[in-house]
Amino acid sequence: MYLKLVASLLLASSLFYSTNTKAECLSELSMPKSNICVSLQWNYGPFLNQYNEATVTLNALDAEKEIKTEKITIFPWMVMPNHQHGSRPVHIQILREHEFKVEKIYFMGGMMGYWLIKIQNLKPDNSIIEEVNYRVNF
Ligand SMILES: [Cu+2]
């Protein structure tokens, strides 16, 4: 049981690191204009009808170039058949450059739709330079 857990943790961490290299960044989590590959790790959750917590890290798609960020915003977003909507406000703490702890991520349950975490790189006037949609699987 213990060994099995260790093995799966090792596998999970090697998968996590493999997303940091240019060739292996998932296309849905990459922002090519900004040279960003997004990694999201759940610290708690994801669960419906509860507050969840994640750490979001921005890595360089091309390690030889700088990440180009203006303003980063991260929030839950639900896509339903006829409309889309957000949730309660999250709390974002900057852990270090390009690393964010996102607390109070709330996913309302019982709706016909799916939840995303949107990570956006914004201009100072809040227009979107690029965004990625992380699909939440419960
Ligand atoms: Cu909904």
Overview of the structural elements:
It is built from 1 helix and 9 strands; from the N terminus they run αβββββββββ. It is about 10% helix and about 45% strand. It starts with a helix and ends with a strand. The protein has a 5-stranded antiparallel beta sheet, with no helix packed on it. Strand 2 and strand 3 (about 50-60) form a beta hairpin. The protein has about 140 residues and is mainly β. It has one domain (about 1-135): Immunoglobulin-like. Residues about 20 have low confidence and may be disordered. It has one helix spanning about 1-20; strands at about 30, 35-45, 50-60, 70-80, 85, 90-95, 100-105, 115-120, 130-135. It is globular and about 45 Å long. The structure holds copper (II) ion.
Which structural class do the helices and strands define? mainly beta
The helix-strand sequence is HEEEEEEEEE
CATH topology: Immunoglobulin-like
What is the top-level CATH class? Mainly Beta
Mean pLDDT: 89
Tally the structural domains. Answer: 1
- Under the CATH scheme, the architecture is Sandwich
Characterize this entry briefly.
This protein has 138 residues and is mainly beta.
Could you give the topology of this structure?
Blueprint: H1 2-18, E1 30-31, E2 36-44, E3 51-60, E4 71-79, E5 84-85, E6 91-96, E7 99-106, E8 114-122, E9 128-135
Antiparallel strand pairs: 1-2, 2-3, 3-7, 4-5, 4-8, 6-7, 8-9
Bound molecules: copper (II) ion.
